[in-house]
Amino acid sequence: MNQFFLSELNIYPIKSLAGISLTTSILEEKGLQYDRRWMLIDQEGTFISQRKYPELALLQITLGEEQLTITHKNNPAQTISFGYGENTGQLIAVNVWGTDCQGIEVNTTVSKWFSALLQTEARLVQMPEAERRLVDPRYAPNNEVVSFADGYPCLIISQASLDGLNEKLDQAVPMDRFRPNFVFTGGEPHIEDRFDTFYIGDLLFRAVKPCSRCVMITVDQQTATKSAEPLKTLARYRTVDKKIMFGQNLIHQGSGTIRIGDELVIREWKV
Predict the structure, then answer these.
(1) Residue limits of the MOSC domain (predicted)?
(2) Structural domains of the chain sorted by starting position, each given as residue range(s) with its CATH number in brackets
(3) Which one of 132, 140, 151, 189 is CB 3.0 to 4.6 Å from 164, fit for a cystine?
C-alpha cells in the first residue's frame, strides 16, 4: 500500500515573483498564508506575469517579522521593502484571468521601483482581507475563495510526476518550474490525478481540476531564460482536450498548520 508524505511546501507571496520554500505554513481560507496576496498590475489593472516579463523570476522575496523585502538575485543592491499591511487605502479594480476583483496599491514608491525595473508602468497591489474572489463555481460549490492565484487556493504535484517527466527530457528541470504549493513523495507518476478527497495532516482537501500549463513553465526560475522545454515534451503525453496538464488544483475545508513530513491520507479516489 502506498504511503504519501509532504516533501515540499511553497508559497509565492507576490504573484509571478520567486517562491519561498517553508517547513511549516498556516492554511487560511484563501490558501496558504501570504501566498499570492500581492501582485503587479498594468495600467488597465490586469496582472503582470513571467509570461511577458520572465525577469520577474529573479526577484527574490524575504519575509521578515514586520515587512516583506524584494531583492534582485543578480544585483542585491537593487532591493525594496514594505510592511505587510502597508497600503494607500484606495481600492483598484484588477483582473486575473478574466475574473474581476479589487486590490489596494501598496505605495507609490514600491510601484515606481517595479516600473523602473520592468521599464513599463506597473503597480503593486495587495488583496484586501475582506475581498471575496470566488473560485469557479463549477468546481467549488460552497463558494470557496482564492487569493490572486490563477484560479484555485492550492496546487499539488507528486515528486514521481516530475521524475517521470525528467526521464523523457534531455536536460532535467526542477520542480520550481511548476510553482506548486505542495509536493509529495510516494506512488507512481501522476497518481495525484486519481485523488478525490484527502487529508494533509488533519486538513481536508479535494482535487477538483487538473492544472493546465502554458509557456510560463519554459522559464528557468534560476536564470529567467526561456526554452521550448518542458512544455514541448509534456505536450506529447499530457494533452487533454488540447490543454497540457500537470498537477492538480485543490480546494479545502477549514484552516490549520501544515508541515513538511505530514502524511497525505486518501479518503476517496476518483472513479
Answers:
(1) 127-267
(2) 4-269 (2.40.33.20)
(3) 189
